[in-house]
Amino acid sequence: MAWTRDQMAERAARELRDGFYVNLGIGIPTLVSNYIPKGMNVQLQSENGMLGMGPFPYEGEEDADLINAGKQTVTELPTTSFFSSADSFAMIRGGHINLSILGAMQVAENGDLANWMIPGKMVKGMGGAMDLVAGVKRVVVVMEHTAKGKPKLLKKCTLPLTGTKVVDLVITDLGVFEIDKAGSGGMTLVELADGATLEEIAENTEAAYSVASGL
Amino acid sequence: MAWTRDQMAERAARELRDGFYVNLGIGIPTLVSNYIPKGMNVQLQSENGMLGMGPFPYEGEEDADLINAGKQTVTELPTTSFFSSADSFAMIRGGHINLSILGAMQVAENGDLANWMIPGKMVKGMGGAMDLVAGVKRVVVVMEHTAKGKPKLLKKCTLPLTGTKVVDLVITDLGVFEIDKAGSGGMTLVELADGATLEEIAENTEAAYSVASGL
Amino acid sequence: MVNKVYPDATAALDGLLKDGMTLMSGGFGLCGIPEALIDAVATSGVKDLTVISNNAGVDGIGLGVMLETRQIKKMVSSYVGENQLFAQQFLDGLLTVEFTPQGTLAERIRAGGAGIPAFFTKTGVGTTVAEGKELREFDGAEYVMERGLFADVAIVHAWKGDTEGNLIYRKTARNFNPMMATAAEVTVAEVEHLVEPGELDPDQIMTPGIFVDRIIHFPTASKHIEQRTTRPRQ
Amino acid sequence: MVNKVYPDATAALDGLLKDGMTLMSGGFGLCGIPEALIDAVATSGVKDLTVISNNAGVDGIGLGVMLETRQIKKMVSSYVGENQLFAQQFLDGLLTVEFTPQGTLAERIRAGGAGIPAFFTKTGVGTTVAEGKELREFDGAEYVMERGLFADVAIVHAWKGDTEGNLIYRKTARNFNPMMATAAEVTVAEVEHLVEPGELDPDQIMTPGIFVDRIIHFPTASKHIEQRTTRPRQ
What we know:
heterotetramer, A: 215 residues, alpha/beta, 10-stranded mixed β-sheet, globular, C: 234 residues, 9-stranded mixed β-sheet, 3-stranded antiparallel β-sheet, 6 helices
């Protein structure tokens, strides 16, 4: 028993606040947009040059000039604005985006993140991931707790880094971890997924972590 | 006998080429726009954020949102575009303007320019002058040859500098001087104003200069 | 739902003003200045301000108002020559000024908003502007390092805006406003026309709403002209 | 009178292409790429190109065409994952790639066009991207110095343009095009709609004509979609 992909996205959506400007990575993070509470105004940024991203278009209404950072066709909203890549990343690098939710291959207990390359495999490139984790105020990682049975929450990342001391919160299928990336508080398990146990997490986590009182 | 302000402006206009983008300073340089040859396409840049500056408006048609760098009301042309100050100076600093024509208090034989402050007097500020002389490919100074009888073409500027080794050509009421600002060729007198003599120039010039053959 | 729209300039600045703070104020000369917001800052009585603005207004108009009330301790500007009171207060030692070339000022503000702490420029090399700053050669030419600027509050003027904070500027009234909107903890905008989201073409929005925290409708901007120049009708 | 309008892409590139040159090519994925100009570069046979482009096209489309013809020696990109041929040529050692984070790439191009030889950014600090580059602390945080980029020729795609070279982009097809237009010795633009000066609103022009040396009318852009995603009608 553990959270499904949708449950993880639903949990990530609880990090949203009214008025937030948010960048969602591909994969599970994209699902978060399905769980934005009704009446909450959250604007999605797409780093290729769009703020206020709408849902996929109806069939036949796709516009090749209107895509998101995953190269998927999307739509406008009444709030939408378009801008250049330089302006888009000025927005990201300048700390104007409230929250970035993205996937990861590895997260270290100090907040280091690896999510862009596996040595020996063909390198596709980091796209905007390094800019997002360096620039966005709060970075939330959503990922499976393990990959092929191996822990992804590590003492130290073994893959090439995307950023150092950048992750604030990790949501896995087994639970939720806070990381004191700016201080020395390390990693803390703050929530258990439905049906997950402390033992199960301990067995599948290499990183050192405290357990919040009450768990 | 010497050139009038209008004759100096007319001479400066001979530095224009078809297709040039030009920034004109205040004073005599502004008059240059009256001497753009018919049929020549020259676009004037105003550093507050306008390319393709038109003439003054007809009375009653002034627009407070449409001014030049001298804070004067101007008009649009069919070629006009507007942009921010950052974009305007990106254009200037990036070397995209072909020619800057401006006034000066002093010019040194190596191309140093002083035109923004006189110690002891209230300092008004340099505005965009330092950006223009540092960024524009070719800088032409138009100025009176002397101020209160004292030479303005000097071995070394005594006033605080606007830029170092930036001036390519100086047009005064007595003649025209080329400056090899990038090399070691120094300053060369290349034209005499109507009625001016080599002796008159020699008496009123502190800078060392060669005289072009044929003068 | 977060509401960015405030009834007037005083309300929009409520809670934001503190003695000794740094304020960015848009405009070039009197063109595109945030008139209502400047007046509200003056009325508030906040003092010891560091004001980042290309110019300092003229006597009695724009930032000139804040000079009369002696609220400004320091200006970061490129040109302040239109203002007699400024000259007098400067000579009397009542205020200081950090002269910054206009393009360097614009770029420092853009950098501040874009998360760039420093950049290199040719502008000012060999002049007093470069004194005490790091010089460095790139590809055979010399450059000076300049720092990004970031303020506590930015006040800007736009032509049109929507309730989401998206802004469109008009003609040369754009000038410093778009960069300043990005380079402060809190940005307050006054707009001549306030519309609903969806009424602005998303391709034409110059400042996306993410940069604007508070907005007021100010349809009665007086828009002074400093140099009224005309030509005769032919 | 200088005429910036050329009859087609091949004519517009005449005299500009040289083996070993550096070329900037606009677009994100296949969105807003200068299709006609890319095809004309491919047809020209020019080789050993360094191409600065966020992506490398897909097999047979966009820059993918120039990979088939093996004209590219080096790419400066942030993401090349959509292209099988790229992977193969990379693994075979036929081309090299300088991976640059997307925002750093955009800013390096902007800097190149704006006369800024170098700037500091937090992006990439502590990663392989920062290896061999200068690190520096500002206000307690660490930054890496990145250099401006400037090309021999930039090719860009716009929605509308006038014969003066003023350009307007459409929606997310804007992406890298505006910066690239500023950052090359010669910039060549293809536009879907070519109009006369005066037909574009001067407040809406995104790339002023000063940056565009040559322009072609290309009304038949095929505009491929990489990921056609839709939702059911309710």
